[in-house]
């Protein structure tokens, strides 16, 4: 078992591909955060205010359920937490994940995918969900980042 866990939510596969690359570089274990109710293409239609993702985004208390059990975090010192940026924030299922685990004393670094949205306050908005964790500088990546960029970030956040 590695001391690093790459935990990620991927709606379209872009974040999954990035997570797999990062896990390989870090020699990390990986865990996919899967929603109990999968998102359909209609659910992900950000142009439709009535879509599931839009409604979850607008409801600060929304916590979509995860499928399966939370991973045992005991042996991990560092968690690389990945997701696509939705409306300049993390999808609500990321809050579900953070609230379900004990991250006290863990190092957390977020990595986000987006074609255009900046990292902005994404991490700042998540920090209250795991206040006893040490939050490391996060990174927003383009859909196909250069290997050197990934290597540099992993080196900066992994022991």
User: What is the average of the pLDDT values?
Assistant: 93
H/E topology pattern: EHEHEHEHEEH
In CATH, the architecture is 3-Layer(aba) Sandwich
Give the CATH topology: Rossmann fold
Number of domains: 1
CATH-defined superfamily? Flavodoxin domain
Low-confidence segments, given as residue ranges, are none
- The strand count comes to 6
What's the gyration radius in Å? 15 Å
Distance between the termini: 15 Å
* Shape designation: globular
Task: Indicate the percent of residues in helices.
Answer: 25-40%
Give a short account of the largest sheet. 6 strands, parallel
Structural class: alpha/beta
* Percent strand: 15-25%
The CATH class name reads Alpha Beta
Number of helices: 5
Topology, pairings included?
Elements: E1 4-8, H1 14-26, E2 29-32, H2 52-58, E3 78-84, H3 92-100, E4 107-113, H4 122-126, E5 134-135, E6 139-141, H5 147-157
Parallel strand pairs: 1-2, 1-3, 3-4, 4-5, 4-6
Helix pairs in contact: 1-5
Structure description:
The protein is of the alpha/beta class and 159 residues long. The chain has a single domain, classed as Rossmann fold (3-Layer(aba) Sandwich), CATH 3.40.50.360. The protein has five helices and six strands, in the order βαβαβαβαββα. The chain has helices at residues 14-26, 52-58, 92-100, 122-126, 147-157, and strands at 4-8, 29-32, 78-84, 107-113, 134-135, 139-141. Strands 1, 2, 3, 4, 5 and 6 form a six-stranded parallel beta sheet that branches. Helix 1 crosses helix 5 (147-157). The two termini are 15 Å apart.
